[in-house]
User: Fold this.
Amino acid sequence: MVGEKKWVPYALLVPWIVGFLLFKLYPFISSFVLSLFVKRGLNSTFVGLDNFKLLFNQSELTGELFINSLRVTFIYVFFTVPLILVVSLLVAYVLAQKIKGIGFFRTAFYMPTVLGANIAIIVLWRYIFEYNGLINQGLALFGVDPVSWLGTPGGAMSSIVALRVWQFGSTMLIFLNALKNVPESLYEAATIDGANKFRQFFSITVPMITPIILFNAVMRLVETFQVFNGPMLITNGGPENSTRVMNMLIYQTAFRDGNLNLGSAMSWILFIIIMVFTVLIFRSSKYWVHYQD
Amino acid sequence: MKKTLLITTIVFTLLFITACGNSGDDDSTITFAWWGTSDRNIATYQAIELFESKYPQYTVEGEQSPWNGYQQTLNNRLNRGTEADVFQVNYNWIYSMYGEDFFLDLNELDLDFSKYPEDEHTPLSVNGKILGLSVSETGYVFYLNKQVYEAAGITVLPRTWEELMIAGETISTVTPGKYALGRLDPQQAAILMFSYLSQLTGKNVINENNQLGFTQAELIDGFNFLSDLRSTGVLISSNAIDTHNDGPTNPNWTSQKYGGVLQWNTAISEYQNTLPNQGSTLEMAGMFQQSLGEQKGMYKKVSMAYAVSKRVIESEAKSEAVKTFIEFMTTDPEAVEILGVDRGVSNHSETQSILSSSTVKDFTATLEWKGHQVVQTLFDAELANGVDLYIHPYYEHSSFRAIYESPIESFLLNNINANEAAQRIINRFNSELLRIMEG
Assistant:
């Protein structure tokens, strides 16, 4: 009886372990092995780190496209992560107040996250940002000339950043929960000391939720480095490769061009970048994250 | 309770693992994968149904797919060895997908190639192995929407570039906001420019030495010509003012603000179907010429081909099944009529005569057929003059094409001038082509 109790939990873990081994660990290791080879038809040749070197050789088209995708991905992450954090924190702060009908607003703000970047949403966003789209129709009402949102590098990047920031719901919910856990007594004491709402926000609220800010920052960073749907479906990487993020290039190289080796090398570089940034954020956290205990 | 939970977990795990494996195989089942529009899908399934009724010993599993994603899936399946028995391919994939390693030499199926023109399968052959069966040939052809022209008082459609530009000026003056053509994507603009330059120079964009056929000065002429088309109301002034990437569903096309399109004759139905009245106002306009009476500037290629998995030859019964199926799809009179021109017009002599004499439908009146005729006529006329405009197998290579499409895209967005665009093409064209060809 006692023996049975010991192995049953392990047996129940089997599905997860099988899934992890098959769909996480195996592709993870095999992609690294693949990145060390060049395959032409059925013939594979070991080339060591040549695939990695090729990616940083700007005199080759492959290198030029890869460096461009790195640059584009960094720009995307640089704008998206802070914007999501700021917007979701501000909205969460407002929604944490005791306002009539707050349940409706919470649902409304969370809705875009539920909808995600599916086809219907992409069609809607294309319609909004097209040259004859909703935004330009709105601008025309004020006599403003139309802007080519999807036809210029800056406009296209703004569009895909806006799509991601619009889906701030889950980040907001986590912030909302954190805000509710800030002891009310701190605000009461600050009010007695004469601190206004602005001061209270930056001197009490923000420091108290820094662990949650750290969590959200890391999660959003990892996620935005791996963006794919928005750029693929809204701009298809254009115009002029200005929104061809790394995951798009990996997908095109590995599957459209059938070059799994080069695609694997790219994905390992992406993995290393994400790891480095995650470690840097964690390392920096001792300077700005405050734990209550 | 704990035991039940445990057994359920193990059963589900086993089912899950089993599902990851192959679904099994048998020699009487033929899998057939293709990409296509809804018209092509319907026709193909009807033909499959007919095949199964004529050959009840066989079953065909059709695997339809839209164009987007088909190449990715095929690449993936070839690498895993799970490709369909018969699969539709673009002719250049014979090279870019290392067809010799994955595609069966069709000579091994003992198919009859004698009813095709002698050189039909040369582009599909590598080292004497025929790696794909030509379904049809295709070329880029202009199709004009009469309604747009007539609304501007133009009753005779243009035949030369000069007439086209005059029409563009008339259309933009009489019906502001409308264009003789409208928006071209970089792929379309590239073939337009290279056709125009071929007419002027008698050269293919990629010459017999696998190098860029045009000089920098000629490319600049080509880009300046695109500018002329924009300033005369043939094309929109910048692609930045219309960012709708999908031509057939572009609102400016469907609302008939755009008067024409340059498209493969085998795929014109996509544009036709999105116009009011099933595109009854669409006319095949061939390739515009420098002057009346000329027959120049037509590039062509095998539009699509049927390739067969190398696995098929491992079983005699399977080989027989696949051979029967391919022959049925390409030569059976009833199947040919069902499939019509949804994959273009075959050059198989018997197939073509079945279609041309069909009482089911006048296939010769279709835009695909008319386009096919003009493609063959113009190409042959050029060939007779020693100008071979067959599309190079690496011209459309998925990564190589960026070498010319990327500068053209920037030019169409007005971000670079003709000199810069030509320079960018010159800079990388030959070296990148060489690199791609060497694999």
User: Anything to note?
Assistant: Chain B touches chain A through 45 residues (CB under 8 Å).
